[in-house]
Specification:
Blueprint (H helix, E strand, L loop, with lengths): L3 E5 L7 H12 L5 E5 L7 H11 L8 E5 L10 E6 L3 E5 L5 H6 L2 E6 L15 H14 L28 E7 L5 E6 L2 H4 L3 E4 L2 E4 L12 E5 L4 E6 L4 H4 L7 E5 L5
Parallel strand pairs: 1-2, 1-3, 3-5
Antiparallel strand pairs: 4-5, 4-6, 7-8, 7-13, 8-12, 9-10, 9-13, 11-12
Helix pairs in contact: 1-4
Length: 257
């Protein structure tokens, strides 16, 4: 049986994530479900997409990724199963898989239209429990992807307007729970060393780790996913620097700019 890795914006203060896992284990007794994250901001597709970008390379081949960040639940948005080169994805087709596709290109996709693999009574507001969770469990237990519904050309899968690049100009993609700003600029530590990040009215030196600057000082560095990040040593860059998602970011060639 395949393992399931579960991402949602359900949080842990309500029973929603636990109920989805309970439904999956009723469908597939003995199923192993791992939590990727549940406390991201409600409806934050960019944050969800980044979490998948960071996680996907480390998940075991053949695993099922259940991703339920679904602000359009109950609308005409499509529910899909995507077969990647390494992994399977069960999610709303709303762009949250955009960055996962960069790590694990989609090969085939199917609409989740066969009610035989859903719960008998469906809520218009909880497709995680009634559609996505049951499908993920059936898939993990060995049901072929073709059984869930008609094929959808992968070129029709929705993607968010996020563009990762190795250039000089990008934007803030999202923030982590520490308030660190994660940008769309790809870099290696060698490429970024000695340079400066310009963001809003700030000029921020690139360092290799937090302790290279004093406590309370801003720094930029190449994060664990290979993306340039901006932080404040033992602080919150989002709050202290007044940063916002989508702010333009520039990487300049020297500390003085």
């Amino acid at each position: 049986m395949r393992e399931v890795y579960f991402l949602s914006d359900f949080g842990l203060a309500d029973p929603y994530a636990a109920v989805v896992k309970a439904v999956m284990r009723q469908v597939a007794p003995g199923l192993t479900v791992h939590d990727l994250a549940h406390n991201l901001p409600p409806g934050d597709l960019r944050r969800a997409s980044y979490i998948l970008y960071e996680s996907v390379p480390y998940l075991p081949r053949g695993a099922v990724v259940l991703a339920v960040v679904d602000p359009g639940v109950g609308s005409s948005r499509r529910a899909v199963l995507v077969v990647g080169e390494r992994l399977f994805y069960v999610a709303p087709d709303n762009g949250l898989l955009t960055l996962a596709y960069l790590q694990d290109p989609p090969r085939r996709a199917y609409l989740l239209e066969d009610p035989a693999y859903h719960l008998p009574r469906k809520s218009s507001t909880f497709h995680g429990r009634d559609v996505f969770g049951p499908v993920a469990a059936h898939l993990a237990s060995g049901v072929e992807p073709t059984r869930f519904g008609p094929e959808l050309p992968v070129r029709e899968l929705l993607r968010l307007p996020i563009h990762l690049n190795f250039g000089r100009q990008g934007e803030i993609l999202t923030f982590d729970r520490f308030g660190n700003a994660i940008t769309t600029l790809l870099a290696t530590p060698t490429q970024a060393r000695g340079k400066t990040v310009r963001i809003r009215y700030h000029r921020i030196p690139v360092a290799t780790h937090y302790a290279e600057v004093p406590v309370g000082a801003a720094l930029a560095y190449v994060g664990s996913a290979g993306l340039l990040e901006v932080a404040v040593h033992l602080g919150n860059a989002r709050e202290q620097l007044g940063l916002r998602e989508g702010d333009p970011v520039e990487l300049w060639g020297g500390r003085g700019g």
